[in-house]
């Protein structure tokens, strides 16, 4: 009996200790009272916005039809997909009170920590047949149908656009709604499922606000391509720097022990992309080095060195000592990989002020030369792993990447061989009218070669034309298309250098150019995982504050992030010059 009492006492003590430790480690996450208090604090802040006078004027006309007014509250702890609550009422006040009560009751029953709370007040709705909905969804770009749906007139089963796209409920291939995905989502959210889809439904959009972990409230766009995200008052250098540091911080977190990266994530269901591409590894390394320029850090330096070592482990040499970046899984050598490896390594040597990788860069350059016909300026794109020819053309990007590298090699060594080779490629770009490709790597290579050949006005004219003839398409592109900002900003650097050297190309529309730069810099924010986007993914904190490709299942891949960083990095370092040339005067006109 005495032993049993001692055992019971020991177990009780252990439970008390565990409970105390958990309470210290997770004081908010495991305390319903604190969670409720924090939620109420955030709701009070949101109420000042959601029930402001202008909202009454815009939303006070029963936009939810038979349901009257409708308000949604999304509550997210950052670790799992947001819980969404719906309230309706004859007035906006009634709808607000209803949804707050529902969310309060739910939080009292669970341990959900309200890190982010988002309010959405419905302001626009229309009833459509399920057949018309199916056609509308099928004709839309993937993830670009930006309407919520009420499956009944009372809004008892109503989901926000972010829920529908975030849980893959919209079926863009077949049109309309995937009933299985819908019911799976409803069941997990503890809602009643649907036996069948109704004959008609209500499409709607909302005005929204989010209260973040710091209790700061942001207005969210209520329409257009940036629907559902915050709007910076001005996208200045400081804002761009934060984007760069956050996204490159994400990339640094993806570095594995062997120096490779977690290649990518489909965040809707937190699925890793099982693939690898050594060219994209090299370009991602370049982004980490750019981040080091902005924020030197010993841990980051170690990760950079690790990723370099991994890349160099994939470099192979032929019998003549020429080096190539080798793609093992495909048993092939890609011209672009050799080029970007040189770009990344020369960037490293410039930042860390050494010539540690000079020899391997020159050997890679010799590999590039072996794939270039200098008489025509044309490259051969892909070799087999045994250095025999495999594929004459793979992608136009390889041409610009290789030429960029040759220019970098000239900057490193001042050996005329590299510059002559780059010139032959650039002359081919002009003769073959590479402006048709809207290629950012061509822009990078033109920017680089004009650092050394400063008096060839044909080079400036071609580079500026590469931007200008494509400005309308670049400006109007609905997706983030992250390489466009790189193209524009590399061209801006060239334009600025041309002006400093006293050159002038006639017919270049500077105002349209600057306006397009600012538009694209803002458009790319639609691919940034702000909390208001991330909270509807499976594991929000994993992809928070990095970049994604919405129209490919919100894909987050290392090269997607790298290209966004590349554009914003050039925007950041050139921001004062952009302003000096009048960019803000144009966009605010």
Distance between the termini: 87 Å
Helix content: 40-55%
How large is the count of helical segments?
24
Radius of gyration: 28 Å
Uncertain parts = 1-30
DSSP strand content:
5-15%
Structural class: alpha+beta
The total of beta strands comes to 17
The general outline is elongated
Overall residue-averaged pLDDT value: 93
Concise account of the structure shown:
The chain has 589 residues and is an alpha+beta fold.
Features:
single chain, alpha+beta, seven-stranded antiparallel β-sheet, 589 residues
Tell me what you see in this structure.
The protein is an alpha+beta fold and 589 residues long. Helix content is 51%, strand content 13%. The strands form 4 sheets. Strands 1, 2, 3, 4, 5, 6 and 7 form a 7-stranded antiparallel beta sheet that branches. Helix 8 (237-253) packs across helix 9 (278-294) and helix 14 (416-431) crosses helix 15 (440-449). The longest helix is centred in the first third of the chain and has 24 residues, at 2-25. The radius of gyration is 28 Å and the shape is elongated. 45% of the residues are buried. The model is unreliable at 1-30 (pLDDT under 50).
Give a topology summary.
Elements: H1 2-25, H2 32-50, H3 53-59, E1 69-76, E2 83-89, H4 92-109, E3 116-129, H5 130-138, E4 148-150, E5 158-159, H6 161-166, H7 179-188, E6 200-211, E7 217-220, H8 237-253, E8 264-266, E9 271-272, H9 278-294, H10 298-312, E10 315-317, E11 323-327, E12 332-334, H11 335-352, H12 358-370, E13 372-373, E14 378-379, E15 382-384, E16 389-391, H13 397-413, H14 416-431, H15 440-449, H16 457-468, H17 471-476, H18 483-500, H19 510-523, H20 531-534, H21 540-543, E17 556-557, H22 558-573, H23 575-580, H24 583-587
């Amino acid at each position: 009996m005495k032993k049993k009492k001692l055992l019971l006492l020991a177990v009780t003590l252990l439970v008390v200790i565990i409970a105390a430790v958990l309470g210290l480690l997770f004081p908010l996450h495991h305390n319903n009272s604190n969670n409720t208090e924090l939620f109420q604090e955030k709701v009070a802040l949101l109420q000042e916005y959601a029930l402001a006078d202008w909202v009454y004027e815009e939303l006070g006309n029963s936009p939810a039809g038979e349901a009257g007014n409708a308000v949604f509250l999304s509550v997210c702890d950052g670790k799992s997909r947001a819980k969404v609550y719906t309230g309706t009422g004859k007035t906006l006040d009634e709808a607000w009170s209803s949804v707050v009560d529902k969310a309060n009751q739910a939080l009292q029953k669970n341990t959900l920590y309200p890190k982010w709370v988002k309010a959405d007040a419905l302001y626009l709705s229309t009833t459509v047949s399920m057949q018309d909905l199916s056609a509308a969804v099928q004709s839309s770009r993937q993830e670009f149908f930006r309407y919520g749906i009420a499956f009944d007139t009372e809004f008892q089963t109503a989901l926000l656009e972010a829920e529908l796209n975030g849980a893959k409920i919209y079926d863009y291939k077949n049109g309309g709604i995937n009933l299985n995905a819908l019911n799976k989502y409803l069941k997990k959210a503890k809602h009643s499922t649907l036996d069948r889809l109704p004959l008609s439904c209500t499409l709607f959009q909302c005005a929204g606000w989010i209260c973040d972990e710091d209790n700061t409230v942001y207005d969210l766009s209520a329409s257009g391509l940036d629907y559902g995200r915050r709007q910076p008052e001005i996208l200045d250098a400081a804002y761009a720097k934060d984007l760069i540091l956050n996204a490159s911080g994400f990339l640094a977190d993806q570095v594995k022990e062997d120096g490779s990266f977690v290649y990518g994530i489909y965040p809707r269901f937190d699925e890793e992309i099982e693939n690898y591409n050594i060219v994209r590894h090299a370009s991602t390394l370049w982004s980490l080095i750019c981040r080091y320029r902005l924020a030197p850090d010993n841990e980051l330096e170690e990760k950079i060195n690790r990723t370099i070592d991994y890349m160099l482990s994939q470099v192979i040499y032929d019998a003549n000592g020429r080096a190539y970046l080798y793609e093992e899984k495909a048993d092939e050598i890609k011209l672009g990989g050799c080029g970007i490896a040189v770009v990344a390594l020369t960037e490293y040597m410039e930042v860390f002020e050494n010539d540690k990788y000079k020899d391997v860069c020159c050997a890679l350059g010799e590999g590039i030369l072996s794939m270039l016909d200098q008489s025509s300026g044309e490259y051969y794109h892909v070799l087999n792993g045994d250095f025999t020819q495999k594929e004459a053309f793979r992608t136009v990007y390889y041409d610009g990447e290789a030429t960029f590298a040759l220019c970098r090699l000239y900057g490193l060594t001042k050996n005329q061989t590299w510059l002559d080779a780059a010139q032959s490629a650039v002359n081919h770009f002009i003769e073959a009218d590479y402006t048709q490709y809207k290629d950012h790597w061509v822009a990078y290579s033109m920017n680089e070669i004009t650092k050394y050949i400063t008096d060839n006005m044909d080079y400036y004219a071609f580079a500026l034309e590469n931007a200008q003839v494509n400005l309308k398409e670049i400006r109007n592109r609905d997706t983030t298309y992250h390489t466009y900002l790189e193209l524009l900003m590399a061209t801006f650097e060239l334009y600025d250098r041309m002006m400093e050297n006293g050159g002038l190309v006639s017919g270049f529309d500077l105002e349209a150019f600057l306006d397009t730069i600012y538009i694209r810099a803002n458009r790319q924010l639609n691919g940034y995982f702000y909390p208001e986007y991330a909270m509807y993914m499976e594991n929000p904190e994993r992809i928070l504050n990095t970049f994604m490709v919405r129209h490919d299942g919100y894909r987050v891949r290392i090269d997607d992030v790298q290209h966004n960083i590349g554009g914003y990095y050039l925007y950041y370092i050139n921001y004062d010059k952009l302003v000096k040339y009048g960019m803000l005067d144009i966009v605010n006109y």
